Amino acid sequence: MEIVENNQRLGAGIITMSVLYLIGQAFTMLSVLINIVMKDEIARMLAEAGTISEITTAQLGVTLVISLILTVSIILILFKKYIGAYIFIGIEVLSLLFSIITGAFTLFSIIGLVFPGLMIFFLYKKKEIYFANLKF
Question: What's the pTM?
């Protein structure tokens, strides 16, 4: 395994997407924590609104773990660590599978693939930093 010189610049795309991801993950973690703390109140409000779907504590826990791992992977990407790109791609795939399994896969989920797709595109453009050990 060869070591890549990390004196290359990241690029505006990776930096912009990383900032957007970090902001989004902060809101996600905050909302999950609020949902966990106020679970009964939120369930009551959903029942009053006529919504049948209830989010379980396990689903909130998995969402929180996914959000934390995504945050760590984005930080690793900003530090030009190739493992961050692999973790990012892997956790995005797992997140998509989790959405499909929990039945939350909708048209919005497809639109939600735009950000991961753009991030992977920008990472691939800097493949000499993140995917140097792969042969394309």
Answer: 0.83
